[in-house]
Amino acid sequence: MPIKSILVSQPQPVSGKNPFENLAEKFKLQIDFRSFIHVEGVGEQEFRKDRIDLSKFTAVILTSRNAIDHYFRMAKETRFVVPDDMKYFCISEAVAYYLQNYIVYRKRKIFVGKQRIVDLVDVLKRQKKETFLVPCSNIQRSVIPEQLEKIGLNFTNATLFKTVCSDLSDLEDVKYDMLVFYSPSGLESLFLNFPDFKQGDTKIAVFGPTTQKAVEDLGLRIDVRAPQPGTPSMTMAIEKYIKDNQ
Q: What distance in Å separates the CA atoms of residue 23 and residue 91, rounded to the nearest whole number?
C-alpha cells in the first residue's frame, strides 16, 4: 500500500524549513504533527513533600530547557531568590543559551558541555565542594544520576515537571498510513488513548533502540528504523522505505 499520509508524534516545528516538509514536497505526502505527550509542572505543594530546600544548593545541573523553565518557576513559587553566585552546569550550548531568558548571562558562572552528561564530568570533578541540584522530570534518564554518583558528587534530584500522555481522542476516526514514534512514552500514549489499537496495514517508524524495544514488547511490527547505516535520520529512513516499496 503506498504511503500518502504520515503522523509524527511530535509537536509541529515552530519555524523554518524542516526535513519532513522537504519529504512531503518530494513525495506529495500529507504529514501532520501531533505531540502524543506533554510536560506539566509539579505544583508547589507536591514539591514541598520532597522536603527540598532550594537555598541549600550552590549549583544547578541543567539538562534541558524544561529543566530551566521549571527550576525558575519553582524558585518563584517558593519565593526563593536565586543568588547571583549560583553556578550553572548546562548539558549543551543550546541549554546554556536558553538561560538568558532568566539571568544576565555574562555575569554568571556557567559551564557548558557538548551534548551529553559525560561531557561535563571533567568539569564537575573539580567542583566537588558544591552542593548540586538536578531539576528533572518523572522519567529522568538513568545515565545522569549514574554518572554523578560515579564521580562522587553531592547532588539531589528534584522532580519539577512530569511527562504525561496527551488527549488524542479527536484522532479516533482519523487514519494515517504511517505513525512515527521517537519515545516509549509516545507508544504509551497511543494505547492509553486507543486501547483497542490494531496495527493492520499501518506502517510504524521508530527512532532509537528504546523506542524499538517498546514497539516490539507491544507485539507491533516495525517497518522503518532509524538511525541505521546510511539513514541516520528519521526522514532519510522514511524516504528510503518509500523508494524501496513504491
A: 31
- Tens-level pLDDT at each residue, the chain (246 residues): 789 999 999 988 876 678 999 999 999 999 999 999 999 999 999 999 999 999 999 999 999 999 999 999 999 999 999 999 999 999 999 999 999 999 887 767 898 988 788 888 888 999 989 999 999 998 877 888 999 999 999 999 999 999 899 999 999 888 999 999 999 999 999 999 999 999 999 999 999 999 999 999 999 999 999 999 999 999 999 999 999 987
**Could you give the maximum distance between any two Cα atoms of the chain, in Å?**
61
Count of residues in the chain: 246
Strands 59-62 and 132-137: parallel
Q: Which three cell numbers stand for residue 126?
A: 573539580
121 three-class SS: helix
Calpha distance 125→123 (Å, rounded)? 5
Backbone φ and ψ of 20, nearest 5°: -70, -35
Q: How wide is the angle at C-alpha 225 spanned by C-alphas 227 and 186, nearest 5°? A: 100
d(CA 117, CA 144): 6
Q: Residue 14: what residue type? A: V
Q: Which domains, ranges and CATH numbers included, belong to the chain?
A: 5-36+166-174+204-245 (no CATH), 40-162 (3.40.50.10090)
CA distances from 11 to 17, 87, 182, 210, 222 (A): 14, 32, 12, 20, 22
Residues in CB range of 36: below 8 A, 6 or more apart: 9, 165, 166, 168, 181, 185, 186, 189, 190
